[in-house]
Each structure stands twice: as structure tokens, then as C-alpha cells.
Amino acid sequence: MRYLSTRGGVEPVDFADAVMMGLGTDGGLLVPERIPSLSADTLKAWSQLSFQELAVEVLSPFVGDSIPHADLVDLVERSYATFLHPEVTPLAEHGGRQWLELFHGPTAAFKDVALQLLGNLFEYLIAREGGVLRILGATSGDTGSAAIYGVRGKAGIDIFILHPKGRVSPIQERQMTTVLDANVHNIAVLGTFDDAQRIVKTLFNDLPFKQRYRLGAVNSINLARILAQTIYYFYAWGRISGGDPEHRISFSVPTGNFGDVFAGWLAKRMGLPIDRLIIATNRNDILSRFVASGVYQAGEVFQTLSPAMDIQLASNFERYLYYLLDEDPAAVRALLAELEQTGQLQVDGERQRRVAEDFDARAVSDAETLAEIRRVYEISGYILCPHTAVGARAAADQAEAEVVVLATAHPAKFDAAVVEAIGIEPAPPRALQGLLERETRCAELPADADAVSAFMRETLDAVEA
What we know:
There is one protein chain. The protein has 19 helices and 15 strands. It is of the alpha/beta class. The strands form 4 sheets. Strands 3-4-14-9-10-13 form a 6-stranded mixed β-sheet. Strand 3 and strand 4 (about 95-100) form a beta hairpin. It is globular, with a radius of gyration of 21 Å. The chain starts with a strand and ends with a helix.
């Protein structure tokens, strides 16, 4: 399997190079040259596999011969040995709803599913090929801690994570800033997540800087993140359907950066019998507005009870746009230029119809989020994090469909919202206990690419000295 850029300016690369490149050198996102097509017999066979066995099967066509099969099996086994539940991403039924629990990893959030694997991939490729890797990422909350826990202490890797100061939960902040390993560098940016994400893209597009320091990506701009997240869609369908290819289910996906729902779309394109993919957003509703109108227009970033979705410009939207525009890089470049010049882009009526076939979408207010946490708790005793509650409320409009809600984080990561909704604090899992009492380390910088690059240069030059 080879990988291309959505903007057409990168020579095809293999999986290993795609992982290490992260963002394309032309500023685009990497996509597979073809999407594998799965038969009904394959889907049925996969439905009987453990999560780890399934992960190897799902990833193999994308990995190709970049990594020997035995090594891939070992990488998968080591990555998911860190999870507290034997099924890794189990299904739970409460209050008449199926919940796909994605929070049993070391940082209690869905990002662990991809980032434990990605951290091990980075370590494996560096050991095999030599050199160093400097990871740069922005986080709206969960990506940062999951990425840090994926690479902390690993030889040859330094990680720099930007988060918007005061716009992540206290637990999320402490999960990052209490990791004191010498290769971990936290930066609180005085701005929004969109500011942090813009800085990251600016530095990746500075090719001399990227090459000098060998930057790598852990945000969902790294395709390996997306591929790993497709696994749990296959796993959930197999557990519910028993492998019946006629059994179609829908998924409600809390999303801000479009990565998790794009992973579901990719699984569907591979042949997974998904009925509907529901994009669940909060007040930052650029994605739901796009589904309704075909117009993608950024607005103000609002701070909400579901901060991981406090995003306007979604990185992975470009990957979907590439397929929506029939894999035409010139058309992608033209629409992105329109977005940069005017603050919005618009697709034509035929493509808007295709968007409506691919997705449903619903924006959920903070009041609705609290009400959903309260409703589910009162009928079942099950406690939702606010992001999961957004997904549950968005799914409520699908009365006749069989909908699985992605439970993206443990509720204890957002205890203030939970207390506001139901008056009690959720018991923290082992991974979150004692965080608020630990020593922290974090730099505070303006939302400026030059300030961040200067900090990175100073830090890394000292490491190399």
C-alpha cells in the first residue's frame, strides 16, 4: 500500500514513511492510494476475533510489507496490554442504549486506542532506521495526554504538546503536566485549540525546520491514528451482529476534529455494514452546519462543557473533502484556497446530497448535555462524560435505528460537569487517582508560531549539546 497527499504534491510513500512524515510536505494529509474492499466472508470471520487479532487483520492491508507480520503482531500485543479491560473497547448496555467504551486505556480516553500503538510504531521505526523523532502536537484535551503516555521515556523521541491554557479540564491538564520524563515538554498556549493547531501546521509547513528537527505528528493528521480508530467500529459491529452481513448498525460519534467519525466513514467504505454515522457536536457546530448546508464556515470558538470538541477548523475534514471531490487534488487545493481567502468553502448540490447520505449531524447545547447526563444516570445509574452525553443526545433523534454511542472518555475526567448534572463525583479510575497532588512542569507561551519554534529550538539544541 502506498500513500498520497490530498493536495497532490507528495510522491507516493509506503506505510512506514507515511507514519514518520505525519503531515504531507505539501501541507496536505496522507491518504491510502486505494481503500481495501472487504467481502462478507471476511467480515464474518473477523467478527469472531479478539480485539488484538482484529487489529492485526484491519491494519495489515494498510501496513503492507513495511512491517513484517510477526513484528506487527508484537506491536499490537504490547500496545493493548496497557488497557485495563480484557476486551480493550467493550460494549456496555445501560438505559436501553449500547455504549462502546473507549476509555479503558492508560489516560482513560479513546485516544489511547490509537496513541499507544502509534508510540510503539515510532519507537520500532526509529530503532530500525536510526535517528531521532521530535513529536509536535496540539490538543483540545485528550490527545495530548494519550500521546505523552504513548512515548514517555522512549529513546530517541522528544514530544512537545500544545494545549489552550484554561480550556482543558483540570484533570486533562494534570495528566499532561505531571509527566516529568525528560523527553516530555508541555506548552500552554494563550489562545484556543484552533490557535494551537494553526501553530502546529505552520511549523510542519516550515520544511527547513521540520527537516532539521525531524518533526513527527501524533494528531489525527497522522494517518496511523485514523487507521487504528477504525478497529473498534469493526469490533463493535462484530459483537452485535455475530457476523451477519445484513445486520446494519449506526454510530453516534462525538467529534470536533473529524478524526473519529472519519475513521467510521473509512470502515464503512471498506464494507462494514454501517447504516448511519451521526456527527455529534457541541455549540462549535461547523460540521453540523456543513452537513445541513454544504457550507463550511468557521466562526468563533466557544468554550463549552465538552472542551475536546471546542474546535472550528477540523483537521481531518480535508481527508473527507478529498474523497468527496472524487480524489482530485486540484479541486481540493481550489476549495482550500477559497476557505483561506473568504473564510468559507461550499460544495455543489450533488456533493451536498452525498454528504447527507454519508452523515447525519446534530449540535447539542450545554443545557442538553447536562440533561442527558442526568437522564441516563436516573434511569440506569450509568454516568456519562459530557462528550459521550453529546453523542447520546444526538442519537436520540434516531428513534428507529440501532445506534451505538461512542463513550469517548471516563466521566471522572470531567467531574465538574458531572457534579453539575447529577450532584456526585464519579469515582476515578486508577489512572486518574492522585493527579491533582503531583508536581507539574509546563511552559506558557503566546499563541505565536515563532515563540513556539524558538522554545523548541532552545530545548532541542540543549538536548543535542
